[in-house]
Amino acid sequence: MARDLWPARLHHLRRDSPNPEPLARFYAELLGDRVAPLPDGSWLVAGRGRRLVIGKGAPGSVPYFALEVHDRAQLATLEGEPFSSPLFEEGALALGDPDGRRVVVGIAKRDGEASGLPARLQHFVCATTRLAEMLEFYRALGMVESDRVLEGEALSAVFLRSDPEHHSFAAFRAPQSRPDHHCYETTGWLDIRDWADRMAKLRIPLWWGPGRHGPGNNLFFMIEDPDGHKVEFSAELELMPKEMAPRTWPHEQRTLNLWGSAWMRS
Ligand SMILES: [Fe+2]
Question: 87 C-alpha to center of ligand 1: Å?
Fold first, then answer.
């Protein structure tokens, strides 16, 4: 049976810190979401199309991210270690990527209706010292390459999709492997305005943007959480059919931000 990860969507991720409760309360205030302790001592922050598990661990760490597949037939095409997530039904699987982060795949438990500003958890991005291996791993998992960024002949970033949205995962070359950011996809540019106004009200300065990324063509801004992990709000992310071939971008500021300056990570 061929591995069938298509379609899969980012459903939740775990974001750790030495003292998780203040971080959980930060995200609850940032997003206007509910926060509740979980039986294992971690915290759940959940809202409209978004869920974070905040646990005790190294500052800024993201030990796993979790992709939701449609049904058990699709899940049965995948192989991995059994994994228990409070947000997935029994039978979820985890695979370790070359950086040691776990990718969890499972069937989502139903959660209740949520209100608040629209922002669906949509992608996760990390820095890595092993970019070529990461690309190979995620392609073998069943993701499809959307775009790559090259500096001369060398890969400097890769973007992969698991449904028509341009990327659900991306990685860039860096001297240290670490999580970089997770992103919330909104329903349009006016939502970006509303989220930026919310940041103003909360006195959280925008860290980068607003701008428009080259790969993905999405409008965005980013802020930092208390550990320096970045949080992105995005709109109008490009859609790409499964069959569409990957494209190549040069490693330059314009690729990261068509509108202006960029933070070059490597
Ligand atoms: Fe992003």
Answer: 23
Q: In what order do the strands lie in the sheet with 50-56?
A: 34-37, 43-47, 50-56, 8-17, 61-69, 102-106, 93-96, 81-82
Give how far the C-alpha of residue 4 lies from the chain's centroid of Cα atoms, to the nearest Å: 20
- pLDDT tens for residues 115-126? 899 999 999 999
- Token pair 């979980």 is found at 38
Best CA proximity match to 148, nearest among 129, 170, 126, 163: 170
- The CA 178 to ligand 1 mean position distance, Å, reads 15
Centroid of ligand 1 to alpha carbon of 185 (angstroms): 10
> How far apart are the C-alpha atoms of 164 and 6, rounded to whole Å?
9
pLDDT above 70 covers a percentage of the chain that reads 98
User: C-alpha 163: how far from its chain's center?
Assistant: 14
**Nearby residues for ligand 1 (ion, Cβ within 5 Å):** 183, 232
